Amino acid sequence: MLSILAQAASGWANLDEFLFIAMPYAVIVLFLFATIRRFIGDKFTYSSYSSQFLENKHQFYVAVPWHFGIISLFLGHLIGFLVPRGVLWWNQVPLRLYIIELGALIFAVSALFGLVNAVLRRVNNSRVRIVTSRMDFIIILMLLFQVLSGMYVAVFDRWGTNWFAGVLAPWLWSLFKLNPDISAVRDLPLSVKLHIVGAFLIFAVFPFTRLVHVLVVPITYLWRLPQQVIWNRKGRTPSQQQ
Amino acid sequence: MDVRAQVSMVFHLDKCIGCHTCSIACKNIWTDRRGTEYMWFNNVETKPGTGYPTQWENQDKYKGGWEVSGGTLRLKSTSKAKYLPNIFHNPTMPTMDDYYEPWTYRYQDLFNSPPGDDQPIARAVSMVTGEPMEIKAGPNWDDDLGGSPIYASNDVNLSAVTEQQRQQLNALERLVFFYFPRICNHCLNPACVASCPSGALYKRGEDGIVLINQKRCRAWRSCVSACPYKKSYYNWNTGKSEKCLLCYPRLETGQAPACFHSCVGRIRYLGVLLYDADRINEVAKLPQDKLIDGQRDLILDPFDPKVIEGAKKNGMTDEFIQFAQRSPVYKFVKVWKIALPPHLEFRTLPMLFYVPALLPVLGSTENDIYKSNTKPEDIFHKFNEMRVPMEYLANLFAAGDVNKMNYTLRKLMAVRVFKRAQTVGDIPMATALETLAQADTNEKEAEAIYRMTALPTFAQRFVIPPLAREVAIEAYKDPQEHKKEAGFGFTIEPKRGL
Fold it and tell me: What is the value of pTM for the model shown?
């Protein structure tokens, strides 16, 4: 670790290697280790820590725009990573490109609106302030930075959906193939680099915040039976009924 | 037939004096922690009244319970299509303001105030924020009709009551109320369990107690909205929902739950009911006027050889079945038919039953002149002039069915007439026996009802079956080992995470 830091200090070229090779790997390891350790050792703290009970009205303007915005943006990034060619094919027709870029920007505005309201609500409402931890503020500010830098990139480094497929998707794939290649990332503008570094930092603090609720999104509800009966008695295994 | 057991309860409302001892006993054991101050797993409401949380019975507002649509049961609050969009902001969830903001007083101010001309006071401070607050509501704000008619007249159950009857309810000489203690009903078709996205809620197979797994609860808050009785509470501090657990650690060691044990009026009965789990869904879907009979049908006769065979097949011991046969709840609900479930129209099939309060006419006004009606014949026969309108009681306990309520009250009244004829003698026995016959009962049953309501011992009121937790522990661990490892307190402290 120290040697990596020393190398990083030796110049900008090495800093890129640190930020786009060493840090992603370190973050992935940290993320997996810390979330799993928390899930096994401290499952009780896996909660969304909803504060709707304490304040109901303002909460709507926080949770709804934020979640719909950020989930759509996250899925957009995921599609860009998984099927870059599909995105390029879609973007062949300029109108389709404009639709997807404008759509993403609208979701970003929605997410930003939610975050700003989150800060206002957590500062202004005395009840909600009580259940706001230091980590809550840190993660909200990090997300705020991330959404703002993303919007900056979308507006000034056009068109993100196109060059993501050609530049970032190959780099991310190279990381996953354990054969990192940062040649394309090296030349990206500072705004994009900041957005990437911000993303990995969020993943790094993720296990230490309430964001862990993302990992336990209850999708299974869609197909589980309505009633659940659990038996203690010997010979009966936990079973479901109805 | 899938024979299962349910630890079930009867509350005899005529004996409830509204002392709130049950609520306090429960609170001292379970909800004295941060985040739970506002929770009352057991609370006692004054009826008519809006209850706690305010207007909990109003499902147009809270969307609790089930509804039948297109032949299938559906949760009113969430469906599979709605739960994901609603997970961020639950539109029908009650907030702290619907309950009350818990408070304490700054008692230190009484000691630390500088000398002055005024008496020092202890200011009310919020137990959430710690800041001084104005007390605007409490868990029993309309206790003994306090604040009426603002509170009492907003009671949802008054919907079927005519304007004239409403006026009478408020007339001073007729002013009337009764107490309505409530805990979790440990329903057969619990909406809370069905609504939980995480699957944290479950019903225990052996005794039917509904619990929340605190490690699986993720604060999606669906159970709070789905429970039509509002008996699942959100702990704003730990980010977990909590509810009445029928003191299962006490039940497992043969003790009555705290609220039962402490009941001053001895209104509470606890015992096992056997039921047919195969038919739950079918019964919960019945038309509203068939629900009461449907639920009674679902409860099985513990003396029926077929039922006993089915019970044994599901692992119940001979001893357990004997306890089911001795269950006072079975007698109240199925044999005597004088205990009714609260708001069965919510279709969760609650397993807590109430013997409705008999509120006799003691006096009335005619042309503004007060007339006393204390003659025994008048007390017992002026049945339709009960101060609480029959429609009101029927809305509460008989899914709106006045006939069912009438049957129950008639029988309770007949028992009184019979005992009065026996002990006081101012009513001819012939009249009493005729009354019994009219009320579909007989001397023997009336005597049994009298004994179980007026003279029961502790052991007759609480017939707690052997829950045999040690047998369950055996399945994975030596009970002696387990005993050494488990003790008081938490294995992991229920501390709020980052």
Answer: 0.91
